[in-house]
Amino acid sequence: MYTEKVMDHFANPRNVGEIKGASGIGQVGNARCGDIMKVFLKIENNIIEDAKFQTFGCGAAVATSSIATELIIGKTIEDALKVTNKVVTEELDGLPPAKLHCSVLAEEALHAALWDYAEKNNITIAGLKKATECSHGCHEH
Q: Which residue in 58, 75, 72, 101 sits closest to 14, CA to CA?
């Protein structure tokens, strides 16, 4: 059911924890399945120096959080915005259809953290919008 990469990131998640004094923090939750993801970012000179996550949820939620943080560390904010749910799913060699929402949550948690960073620094990040309602109608921000 799950790929080897999903199982690896579930059993050995990377970047678990929190960043004290984070540049940006984003949290999203999924009422349908109970997954909650919180992403912490340390950003300096437009580069994501560090990313950590705390996820309460299923194995796929942990795996998508883990791979998403791996994919953005060392990247510019603009490149981090290119880490979409599709990219997360592809990097994990696929997810079962019932778990695709986890990759969407990972993308939205990242975007929420970047939005928080932009608000704290009174800047606009091209291509980033504040989520006013869930794109797939199943969680609150």
A: 72
Single pTM value for the model: 0.89
**Active site residue ranges:** 33, 102
The yes-or-no verdict on residue 39 having pLDDT over 80 is yes
**Domains contained in the chain, CATH given:** 4-120 (3.90.1010.10)
Q: What single string gives the DSSP state of each residue in 47-93?
A: EEEEEEEEEES-HHHHHHHHHHHHHHTT-BHHHHTT--HHHHHHHTT
- Given a contact cutoff of 8 angstroms between Cβ atoms, the answer to whether 139 and 28 are in contact is yes
Phi (first) and psi of residue 47, to 5 degrees: -110, 135
